[in-house]
Amino acid sequence: MESSIYEGSDGWWHGRVTMGVKDDGSPDRRHRRARTETEVKRKVRELEDLRDKGRAPKAGRKPTVEQWMTTYLTNIASLKLKPRSLDDYWSKTRNDIVPGVGKHRIDKLRPEHLERMYRAMLNEGHAPSHVLKVHRILSRALKIAHRRRLIVENVATLVDPPTVDETEANPFTKEEAKAFLEAAAKRATFMRWCVGVGMGFRQGETLGLRWPYVDFENELFHPKWQIQRLTWRHGCDNPHACGARLHRFEPCPQDCTTHKGYKRGCPKPCPKGCTKHASVCPDRKDGGLVFTRPKTKKSQNPVPIPPPFIPYLVQHKAQQDEMRTAAGDLWEEHRVVFSRPDGRPLDPHQDWEEFKELLEEAGIDDRRLYDGSRHTAGTILNELGVDMPTIMEILRHTQISQTRRYVKGRSHLSKEAMHRMGEFFVTSSQPTPVKPATRTETADSKAARSQRRRRIR
Which of 351, 355, 362, 378 is nearest to 198 (CA)? Predict the structure, then answer.
């Protein structure tokens, strides 16, 4: 296990360190070189120190960040992440991580490389929350590489990502919630919005509700499924050739009219080995509207149905039976509570557009769908005097701190609370008037001052 240091014929100083044995049984000898003997000794000592502490990386050439991210997402993260989360990881890897630091070897990656990438992303207009998500994805991948001894240290832990301010909730007031539901009452999807606003269901959970999981007898909803739109995947053997007619390797001209109506502008050119465009694959799979399980086990807990909702639900079921009869052979049976006229589940994007239309009809300023459902339900429950643990059970959160972020305080409730505080401390309704202090200045005589001095003595 002794190291060797010598000067080579090429003018460089070389160091050879015995690290152990490779997987095939051959000796694991690592090489270091430097211009001076002092420098090569320092490198040898560092490698020996890693060996003695059991932290030495494995032998062999290390992959680049791009190669490791592909391995991580394909073979490691795919076993644990939900499909939508995995799609998001792939998207941020292709669009941000690979263009930023993809060519660096993971053992040569430095904190300044990440800092420059984050600064460039912010300069391009990305939100700090987006940069933070990229940082977390890369940090997780490097953590696995460090655990497998491919690198000595996870450099992402040495970088401070941008600070993200928490998005402030903007829930409906009681009056706005009533106005919203009055506007929704004119539509066939009235009960969908009653469940979303009145019970705080997420969009996917609401659209994924199915009749076998509606317990009319015990007045319970069992949110066992949710609807999500997933990205299609190729089922063919050659994804690059399959999407050949949709590949675009050159950027669009400045006066592009093809993508004029796109909200995000012209799409980026395809990479050389592009394997996207799976939507045109004849053997495509795992995409479109799909029933998936909610993210956590807590999210599947049953939720009590408000008793006034029951007659409306029964009426909604009868109307759906009439639609089934009218559709005949065109009906697609998915047993969903909220469906299109042909039985298919409601599309989440169309559902979002309907929410925006109802806001305009009700005269309510624009806000997020989440504000008009879960945040509204939590805030109104709090205004009605429901305690936090009960609200946490209704919204199916795992921690009460998460519930507190969903509940927004109201100024009129704070004013009423301080009014009660004042009444508790001040028992009298009218304060006792305080007489103003008066002072009369009189000239003091010499005799009076002399008499006062004698009295003091």
Answer: 378
